[in-house]
Amino acid sequence: MKATVLHGAGDVRVEEVPDAQVLEPTDAVIRIYRACICGSDLWPYKNLDPREGARIMGHEAIGIVEDIGSEVRAMKRGDLVVMPFAYSDGTCIFCHDGLQTECVHGGFFGNGGDTDGAQAEALRIPQADGTLYVLPAQPDEALLPSLLTLADVMGTGHHAAVTAAVGPGKSVAVVGDGAVGLCGVIAAKRFGAEQIIIMGRHAERTDLARELGATDVVAERGPEAVERVRELTDGFGAHAVLECVGLDESTLTAIGIARPGGAVGRVGVPQDEAMPGGQSSFYGNITIGGGPAPVRAYIDELLPDILDGEIEPGRVFDRTVGLHAVAEGYRAMNDREALKVMVRP
Prior knowledge:
The structure is a single chain. The strands form four sheets. Strands 3, 5, 6, 9, 10, 17 and 18 form a seven-stranded mixed sheet that branches. A six-stranded parallel sheet has the order 13-12-11-14-15-16, with helices on both faces. It has a three-stranded antiparallel sheet with strand order 2-1-4. It is of the alpha/beta class. It contains twelve helices and 18 strands. It folds into two domains: 2-152 and 294-344, Quinone Oxidoreductase, Chain A, domain 1 (Alpha-Beta Complex), CATH 3.90.180.10; 154-290, Rossmann fold. It is 30% helix and 25% strand. The protein has helices at residues 42-47, 93-96, 128-131, 144-149, 153-163, 179-190, 203-212, 222-232, 248-257, 278-283, 295-307, 326-334, and strands at residues 2-8, 11-16, 28-36, 55-56, 61-68, 80-83, 86-87, 107-108, 122-125, 133-134, 171-175, 195-199, 216-218, 238-243, 258-266, 287-290, 319-322, 341-344.
């Protein structure tokens, strides 16, 4: 079968790899129906040292179940499923708490570990019963982009809003105008926020953010951004801040624009071990939380709104490529020519 293999920074190839197959009785194999490129895939695309070894990329997919192990009970061959970016057994103490990304038997797809990625023709899914979410019926083709966002970006934007305690009447600032940030706008509107500030410098993205529910746009960065957000929030800052980038600068901005007693939901993958802003967040009584979103836990809540057309997170996709052209998809996202690229194997 064919799969997307990253050999080093900028070196994306589509290669023949061993066929996906059931190895454990709790495994399933899915034929990838739709996959996509994530903003977090761009970090290894920019920085992977070839000495670290090649990896099969991708952690978001919708697929069709092709094979199941002898202990799989929650699905059958032919089912259409959402594949969250993390696998989980669904039975451990953390899974029962709705925190599947901390599963004691879990892990992540496509990060160079022992589980391959979904930018491929097929994929083995460990812990299939706890990982895959069976969709209720064959959906309308027009819904597929939005359903695909349940594998990561919509659930991740939702997680940022949950962690930052977004609610009716509150002011929300979203740091980052990528797909996760735009889904954070959707989540903030869905939770009834009164004011939603999108922070970004790309007009086509901030225009889309306005269509999705943003009330204000801040294009400045650094101290100027902090000043502008405070101007928009009566001088106090936002009740809730969704940090959707992961860099030191974006984290400092997120803390700087949170009002005293406010909260920051961090879902941008951190690129450094130490988190900046310790003193300012401490003296501002700012709550900081977040992490890898347990998107599997959120599908039950978000799926009905997608099926009913209440939310359209699939609008973050602005380009589709075949598997043979996935390297061009990476280049386009890296060069900011595309917001988010869907892959059709």
